[in-house]
Model the fold of this input.
Amino acid sequence: MEDKEEDNPPAQSNVLQVSSELTIPRGELNTKATRSSGAGGQHVNKTSSRIELTWNVRQSASLTDDQRAVIISRLRSRLTADGDLRVVASTTRSQYRNREIAEQRLAKIISDALLPVKKRRATKPTRASRQARLDEKKKHSSKKRERRAPVDD
Done:
């Protein structure tokens, strides 16, 4: 049976809401539909339901210079040489649903990259934890010592 959501998708807004401070116009997103692999029988062989979504971080007009610098530095391993961030979704048989999933993943990746980094606070181990560690070392050492062959003098 055909998926009915492909026939009548609800109206989309023309922006992707990433956070309260950032929205990306859908015109900046490049969408490519290709044939998906995996389960689905004949359906997989004749429909292009896999969605590849790319967004160019370097050329985006929706980012401030600070946001752009943070995203580029934190996501440099995920960006292409041209500055494209690529997200792929092929989990469902519906092209429309895969597009939604890809957009959600893109928004999550970007919002996570823009979160401020928590500053690490140096801590000291407690006296009890240090003692427990030493006790464990002694038990391990004695276990190894007992396994050794006796030394004849």
In short: The mean pLDDT is 83. The CA atoms of residues 28 and 61 lie 9 Å apart. The helical segments are 42-46, 65-74, 95-114, 127-147.
